[in-house]
Amino acid sequence: MRKVVIDPGHGGLDPGAGGFGLREKDITLDIALVLRGLLADSVDVSMTRDSDKFVSLSDRAKFTNTVGADLFVSIHVNAGGGTGYESYIYTDALDETGRLAGLIHNEVASFYKEKGFPDRGLKKANFTVLRETAMPAVLLENLFIDRKEDAEKLKDPGFRREIAGAVAKGIFKAFDLPAPTTHPDLPPHWANKDFLRLWDAGLVKGKHDLDSPVSWGEFSAVMARLLDQLKLEM
Fold first, then answer.
1. What is the pLDDT of residues 34-72, one digit of tens each?
2. Residue 16, phi then psi, degrees to nearest 5
3. Which part of the chain has CATH 3.40.630.40?
4. CB of 6 within 8 A of CB of 32?
5. Catalytic residue of the set 24, 86, 107, 141
6. 141 annotated active-site
């Protein structure tokens, strides 16, 4: 099974960029957690952080190298007077990195173009997490947090789930794996948000009647998945 490390940018004492009441560290973690759930059935997923804590850039790279990942994906949000989506690989990246990053970039860029945001391109940079990781690594910059139109989209949990879905599709395409399961189309219900949190974490599968009673078998399956995730993160 392929190993992927997801890296939610910033965290803890490092909030990242900000604008319109948003903090980059919160958005990147939310997208990354959803992405983990989308990949969990077919890819061995680890995260450099799964809560609001500070992890140095070098420690993120060291962790990824220790895991022996096949791919490192760093999730970020841009700032500084622009709009749209761009991604980065290391300045001296190998051809295989460019190939995998290109497949991921094109899938995510297509999603953004459908939403009316420009593709700013796949670029090269001497970022620490790209330079110090020993496997193909890509850094994704998702919209601009300090532009009103971009920030309005980033505020929407549904849109963030769509971002994660596009990234997941790119990763599956890069590894030539079947497309990931999409989020269930749920009818209106007060518990939809909570159910989708469980779904994003890989704890429930498929579509369910949220007013139906839960059997001991279903409860056991959810708890077993939770225990498996806790074991992986220890």
1. 899 888 888 999 999 999 999 999 999 999 999 999 999
2. 75, -155
3. 3-174
4. yes
5. 141
6. yes
